[in-house]
């Protein structure tokens, strides 16, 4: 039910133009992970409940996820992530809203490099970003893969000096979304 609410919210954000001409692709089970590596510690987590929607008429794209859906191999690390760094009770979601720059004929099967430009909101802070990825179309379904870098300081995420050497200055974020027509 919660995933349907997230997907409904994404659909709301993408309501542009004539609803009858829109072709929407979406998922509520996309995978987003992040990786931080320093000489002192490797930190990684995965979220398998990320929502994504693409409007193939307007090329608008939205991705949303609950911060608490990130799972870490170490439960104490997960607790610190939610309570001390991302403050997930105060800032429960991360959101990207933007537009794919390239015009792709999704009715034709193929693999297409794409760039989505828009805004990303994490920890209550919003920043303009461009995310590069690959869009694979089968004609009926889409697969979207992406990778980008995030600096915690860009999103006002405070890292205490005691652990600053355990968290990379730049975090690698990857995503894999399998989208179907809605």
Describe the protein's architecture and organization:
The chain is mostly beta strands and 182 residues long. It has one domain: Lipocalin, CATH 2.40.128. The chain has two helices and eight strands. Strands 1-2-3-4-5-6-7-8 form an eight-stranded antiparallel beta barrel. The radius of gyration is 17 Å and the shape is elongated.
SS-derived structural category: mainly beta
The percentage helix is 10-25%
What is the averaged pLDDT score? 89
Low-confidence stretches: 14-20
Lateral arrangement of strands in the main beta sheet: 1-2-3-4-5-6-7-8
Would you state the CATH class?
Mainly Beta
What's the overall geometry?
A: elongated
- Percent of residues in β-strands: over 45%
CATH fold field value: Lipocalin
Total of domains: 1
What is the assembly state of the chains in this entry? single chain
Major sheet: 8 strands, antiparallel, barrel
What series of H and E elements makes up the topology? HEEEHEEEEE
Determine Rg (CA atoms, Å).
17 Å
Please tag this protein with its features.
Lipocalin, 49% strand, Lipid/polyisoprenoid-bd_YceI, mainly beta, 182 residues, eight-stranded antiparallel barrel, 8 strands, YceI-like domain-containing protein, 13% helix
Task: Give a brief outline of the structure.
The protein has 182 residues and is mainly beta.
Task: Record the SSE blueprint.
Elements (H helix, E strand, L loop, with lengths): L1 H12 L10 E14 L4 E14 L4 E7 L8 H11 L7 E8 L9 E13 L2 E13 L3 E10 L20 E11 L1
């Amino acid at each position: 039910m919660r995933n349907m609410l997230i997907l409904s919210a994404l659909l709301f954000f993408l309501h542009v133009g004539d609803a009858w001409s829109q072709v929407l692709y979406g998922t509520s089970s996309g995978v987003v992970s992040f990786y931080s590596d320093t000489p002192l510690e490797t930190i990684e987590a995965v979220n398998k409940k990320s929502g994504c929607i693409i409007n193939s008429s307007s090329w608008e794209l939205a991705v949303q996820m609950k911060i608490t859906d990130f799972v870490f191999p170490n439960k104490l690390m997960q607790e610190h992530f939610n309570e001390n760094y991302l403050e997930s009770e105060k800032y429960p979601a991360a959101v990207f809203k933007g537009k794919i720059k390239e015009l792709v004929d999704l009715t034709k099967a193929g693999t297409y490099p794409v760039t989505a430009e828009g805004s990303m909101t994490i920890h209550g802070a919003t920043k303009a970003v461009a995310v590069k990825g690959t869009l694979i179309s089968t004609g009926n379904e889409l697969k979207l893969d992406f990778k980008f870098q995030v600096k915690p300081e860009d999103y006002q995420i405070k890292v205490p000096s005691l652990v600053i050497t355990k968290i990379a200055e730049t975090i690698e974020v990857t995503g894999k979304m399998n989208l179907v027509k809605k």
